[in-house]
Amino acid sequence: MIPITRIIGASCDGLDTHKSKYFKMGLSKATNGLFKPITICDPFARNCEWADPHTNDMNENTKAKHHLDALEFLKGYPSEYFDLVLFDPPFSPIQAERRYECGLENIYTQGGYLSKVYFECARILKVNGKFLKLGYNSNRPHSSLVLKEMWVTCFGGNRNDVIMSLWNKEQTSILDYSHGIF
Ligand SMILES: C[S@@+](CC[C@H](N)C(=O)[O-])C[C@H]1O[C@@H](n2cnc3c(N)ncnc32)[C@H](O)[C@@H]1O
Prior knowledge:
This protein is α/β, with parallel strands linked by helices. It has a domain at 54-130. The chain has a 6-stranded mixed beta sheet with strand order 1-5-6-4-3-2. The termini are far apart. The protein has 4 helices and 6 strands. Helix 2 (70-75) links the parallel strand 2 and strand 3. The structure holds S-adenosylmethionine.
């Protein structure tokens, strides 16, 4: 059994996820209260600077240090480099297109895009590194990741809940990253 906490969200949480109560709870758990310096990567950072300088957002009008497509950004890092990956993309094709103006060609409409991004996130995480995922589901991102804790934030009205899940990268075998070569 993993712990699941239900949180009442604030309507003012808006686009700045990193300012919300639930995000801070997850970050605190993922970083052990930020007691020791850790290396963080954020491929969909918008204006969140927790992972600085490893922040990326395709939108050039954000505070991210890099403005690449997330997959290209992640591919630029060596394996087992980060203690934590923050994963907060648009939550749906409609959000990607309308809320973040990513266009019709987005992370949901390009075949296999998300599984490639998940693969890269798992690859760049150290063993025992953490993956903090926000979205509308708690699907397992990669076979090397084990679910540790979840938070469900409810906003009332007709808004969807936000599901935040914390994953731990377990010891892996080369087969996890072989793309079927072996
Ligand atoms: C939910 S917001 C991130 C919010 C941020 N984590 C925070 O705490 O405020 C998602 C961001 O992903 C960016 N994005 C969408 N598709 C992308 C892609 N393929 N590559 C890089 N960034 C992308 C959008 O521009 C948007 O700013």
